[in-house]
Write a structure and sequence with these properties.
Blueprint: E1 7-10, H1 14-24, E2 28-31, H2 37-42, E3 50-53, E4 63-66, E5 69-73, H3 78-83, H4 85-90, H5 92-98, H6 104-109, H7 112-118, H8 124-131, E6 135-140, E7 143-148, H9 149-152, E8 153-155, E9 158-159, E10 166-173, E11 180-187, E12 197-205, E13 211-219, E14 226-227, H10 229-235, H11 242-249, H12 266-289
Parallel strand pairs: 1-3, 2-3
Antiparallel strand pairs: 4-5, 5-10, 6-7, 6-10, 8-9, 11-12, 12-13, 13-14
Helix pairs in contact: 5-8, 10-11, 11-12
Bound molecules: flavin-adenine dinucleotide.
Flavin-adenine dinucleotide is lined by residues 29-37, 74, 101-102, 106, 109-111, 113-115, 117-118, 120, 123-125, 166-167, 192-194.
């Protein structure tokens, strides 16, 4: 199938993106890497009247540290984020997860912002954003808006970004403590396919080796990446023993809403999510203790 007819404009600044969005109404769509939007258009599941190409907007590309945040501009290629020493040394959980996003070819075009706006329930970048309480910055002709990621990710393939807003950057908090470790696990049918279920965790231990802070989230088992607050509350203050982790993760059944599809039934997805969550927490504990690299 071929895409329905559309107009096309290639812009060179964020101001220009915002002006075109403001002038053209809800049928206009930004195109970044095109890795999701182009197939959707080819299948006529998306029919934008106007494509606004942001690939020449240099101010939408780059990775930096600002205070306690790793800041990734929306148009940064996933491959550049994966190769970045700044990402690896400040938010290694994100670096690890990025290696699971699609294939080399899709990462070479796909952008960090495109993945966040696309909000696939199984996508790794939204999952890490949810795990770490990332903050999204959006811009329109009305000004900038700062959105905590749990208010940004609304449902499957849906965010609270307004039709006239451009996602400009994402801020990922940096956990400064040396006694911090991360874990990421996913199951997919083939390497680099979207995950059936995935989990990410980050933990900081106190001097006694007990859990001082734990963030854990799962993807693929609910409409949007989901923080497991019940598990966090149950495990903070404990020594993160294997049995305690398993018991806490067994309780997430009421929180999740896994869907059946051609790849897996709902019950299997739910079981995988629990196991992935447990493994991610175990790895984060072991990295914090220095027994896992
Ligand atoms: C074969 C294949 C395998 C894949 N596997 C995975 C995987 O395992 N995990 C995974 O997470 N993803 C996977 N993907 C998706 C891939 O990561 C996409 O790159 C990503 O979902 C969309 O990024 P993009 O830059 O290509 O966005 P586009 O396709 O250009 O756009 C996607 C959506 O975001 C909007 N958008 C983009 N940028 C902005 C912006 N700055 N502001 C406002 N709106 C914006 C667009 O209007 C559109 O609605 C896969 C894709 C393919 C083709």
């Amino acid at each position: 199938m071929k895409a329905a007819p559309f107009d096309y404009v290639r812009v060179s600044s964020i101001d220009e993106v915002c002006q075109v969005l403001a002038d053209s109404g809800e049928e206009a769509r930004i195109i970044a890497g095109g890795q999701t939007l182009v197939p959707l258009m080819a299948m006529r599941l998306a029919r934008p009247s106007l494509l606004i190409d942001i690939n020449d907007v240099s101010e939408l590309s780059g990775i930096s540290v600002d205070g306690n945040d790793l800041v990734i501009k929306a148009g940064t290629r996933q491959a550049d984020a994966l190769a970045s020493d700044i990402v690896k040394s400040n938010v290694p959980l994100l670096a690890d997860a990025l290696s699971h996003v699609g294939h080399t070819q899709t990462r070479n075009r796909g952008t960090v912002g495109g993945s966040l706006v696309n909000a696939d329930p199984s996508a790794e970048i939204p999952l890490i954003a949810q795990t770490l309480d990332a903050v999204i910055v959006a811009r329109s002709t009305r000004g900038d808006r700062t959105i905590p990621v749990n208010e940004f990710l609304e449902s499957a393939m849906a965010t609270t970004l307004a039709p006239d807003e451009c996602l400009v950057e994402a801020h990922f908090p940096i956990w400064a403590s040396k006694n911090t470790g991360f874990g990421f696990h996913e199951v997919s049918i083939r390497d680099s396919d979207f995950a059936l279920a995935a989990a990410a965790a980050q933990v900081t231990l106190n001097r006694k080796g007990n859990c001082e802070k734990l963030n854990v989230a799962i993807g693929g088992a609910s409409p949007a990446a989901l923080r497991l607050t019940i598990v966090e509350e149950e495990l903070v203050g404990t020594d993160l023993g294997d049995d305690a982790i398993k018991a806490a993760c067994a309780k997430i059944g009421d929180l999740i809403d896994p869907q059946a599809d051609v790849h897996a039934d709902a019950a299997y997805r739910g079981r995988v999510a629990k196991v992935m969550a447990g493994r991610a927490i175990c790895d984060s504990r072991d990295r914090a203790k220095g027994v896992l690299q």
